[in-house]
Specification:
homodimer, 338 residues, alpha/beta, 434 Repressor (Amino-terminal Domain), Rossmann fold, six-stranded parallel beta sheet, four-stranded parallel beta sheet, 12 strands, 46% helix, elongated, DNA-binding
Chain lengths: 338, 338
Amino acid sequence: MVSTATGRGRPTIRDVAAAAGVSRGTVSRVINGGHWVSPEAREAVERAIADTGYRTNQHARSLATGRSNSLAFLLTEPQDMLFADPNFAILLRGAAEALARRGMTLVLLVAGTPTERENAAAYVADGHVDGVLLISTHADDPLLADLVARGIPTVSCGLPLGFTGQVASVSVDEIGGARTMVRHLRATGRQRVAMVAGPLDTPGGRYRLDGYRDELGADFDERYVAYGDYTVESGAAAMEELLVRAPDLDAVFAASDTMAAGAIATLRKHGRRVPDDVAVGGFDDAGLAATLDPPLTTMHQPFDLISAEMVGLLLDVIAGAPHKSVTMPASLVVRTSA
Amino acid sequence: MVSTATGRGRPTIRDVAAAAGVSRGTVSRVINGGHWVSPEAREAVERAIADTGYRTNQHARSLATGRSNSLAFLLTEPQDMLFADPNFAILLRGAAEALARRGMTLVLLVAGTPTERENAAAYVADGHVDGVLLISTHADDPLLADLVARGIPTVSCGLPLGFTGQVASVSVDEIGGARTMVRHLRATGRQRVAMVAGPLDTPGGRYRLDGYRDELGADFDERYVAYGDYTVESGAAAMEELLVRAPDLDAVFAASDTMAAGAIATLRKHGRRVPDDVAVGGFDDAGLAATLDPPLTTMHQPFDLISAEMVGLLLDVIAGAPHKSVTMPASLVVRTSA
DNA sequence: TGTCAACCTGTGCACGGTCACAGGCTGTGA
DNA sequence: TCACAGCCTGTGACCGTGCACAGGTTGACA
C-alpha cells in the first residue's frame, strides 16, 4: 500500500505515526538514529514507513534544522581553463558521487563574473548549502576571504596560499611530484634539466618550482628556469627563451601539460627532436597529455581521490573538526616524451 | 542596520513587517510580484527589506509552495565519454549560468550505476527539484521513461528517439549540419565522399547519416558507409573497412570528431595524406578537434546556446506549456583537414 | 442613498518536519 | 512505602513562508 492515510499528496510523518500506532515524535526518533525507542515501536514504525512509502521531506527538515544536506561546488575561474580540462569533470563527478553516497547533493555554483560572485556569496551566506568545495587556482581569491570571514565551512582544492591554517584544503604533493619528475628525467640520463614554471602566486607555480630546485640541489641554475601562465602559448614562449639562455638543455620539466605542449611545439620548430634531443615532462596528466605528439610523460593528479577527500574533510569541518590540510601523492605516468 | 528585530538569527518576514509597519501578508505580496499593494506600502516594505538586510528563506518558501527553485542536471552516461569532452563542461556551465540569472540553482545528479540511477530517480520524484535537464545519448533510456511516466518536467539534450512528442528537447540540426559538411567537402572538389556513421539508435548516428544521404541524393552508395560507436578505435576500424570496400574515396565525413581522429590515424597508416589525398570532416567540434594533426574541420555544436535554450524550455514546461522540440543550427568550422 | 466593483490589507492556517519538555511506567535501594 | 533514576512516549511550540479568506475603504453609478 503506497497510498497515504490522508488521501492527498505524499505520506507525511503523521501518516506513518498513525499507521504505526505511535506519535510523530517516536517516528522522528526512529528516523534520526533511533535512540531511546523500544524495539517494538521501532519495528512498527519501520513497517509503517515501508507500507506507506514514506520519504522524508527535505524542505521541511531543512526549515526545522537549519541544515540543507547539500554542498556547493564553487568555481571561481574567470576563464574556461579549468572547464576545458577533463580533469575538472573528474573532480566534479567524484564530488557528486561522494555526496550521493551520503544521501547529500551537490549544487553547482559558477562565480566567474563579479555579479556571479556576489550572487554565489549571497547564496552560500543564506545557508542554502552546508559548506563549500572551493575550486580556485588564484591565491588571493577575495571570495575565499569572504567565506572565511563569514565562517562558512570551506575546503579548498589546492593550497590556498594566503590562508594557510585558516581553511581546510586538499592538494596534490606539488613538491614531491616535481621532485619525482626531475628525478625521472635525470635517471634517464639527462644532464641539464630546464624548467618552465608557472605563476608564483599559484601553488602549482610556486611549489613545483620548489621541488625542482630541491631535487637539483647544487646543480640548480637560475638560467634554466623560465615562466609561463599555464597557457600553451606561454609555454612556447618560455621555451624560446630557454633555448636562447640555455641552448645546451637536454630536458624540460613544464609545470603544466598545457605549457609542455607549447614547449614541444617550440622545440620541434627549432629542429630539436622529442624525446631524442630533449626530453619533456609535464604535470597534471590533463586530457591532452595522451593525445600529444609524442604522448606526454607527466605527473598524474588523482582527482577522483582528491574530490572524495575534499567531501570527507568538509563534512568533518561542518561537524566541528579543526581545519586540516591533506596532501595526496602524484604519480609518474611514463609515455613517450621522456 | 543589518541586525534583526528579534535579536536572534536572520531577519524574517515578520521583522520586515514590523519595521515597515504592515502585516506579513503585505510583505509577502511585495516580494512576490507585488500586485494589489499600495505604492506607500510597497516603498515602506522595500526600505524595511533594505534596512533589515532581509533575504527570503528558500527552505520555508519551498515547504510552503512545493517548489524548489532548482533544476537537476541529470547525467545518465555509464562511461565517461561525455565527461571527457570539454563540450560537456560548456553545457553544464551554460545551464548553471542561465539558472543563476533567474535566481535558481543547478543540482548535479550523476546516474551512472544502477544504484545511482535509483537514487537519482527517487531524489527527483521526491520533488527536490522542479524539473530535469536530461543529458543522455542513449535512445532507449529507461530513466527517461520513468521521468515521463511520473510526469516530471523534463527537457532532453538531443532528440529522445523513443519519445518523440512526449518530452521537450533541444538538439542541434543533425541533418542540416551533416548536409553542410558534405556540401563543403564536395565544394572543395571531392568526388567520392565516404562516411563513418555512428550507432543508428542514437540521434547523431541516425540523422547525420540521413543528412549525408540526402545531400548526396543519387550519388549515395551504400559501400561508402561504415559504422563506429563514437570511440577513436571504432573510427579507425571503420576507416580500414572503407579503404577496402571503397579504396577510391577522396573524402570522409565522420559522425563525430573522435571517430574522425581514428579515421585520420588509419589514413596516415596507409600512407594517405590528409587533406591532400583524403579530406576529413568531423562533427561536434570537440576539444580534440583543434589539437588534432592536422586540425580538424568539423561542425560546431553551439552548446552554450543549447544549454540556455534547455533551461528556458524547461521553465516553460514547468509553467505548463506544451512540449516543444527546438533545433539549433550547427556551424561549419574550417580548419586544415578539409 | 444604496449597491457594487475594484483595490488594498490583515489574519489564520497549512506546509512537514525537529526538538524540548513533561509525564508515565518500571525497578531498585533506603 | 517512598524517592529516584532510567527508559520510553506524547504534546505543543516553532522553523519562515505562501495563500485563501474575510473584511475594510473608496469611488462610480443607478
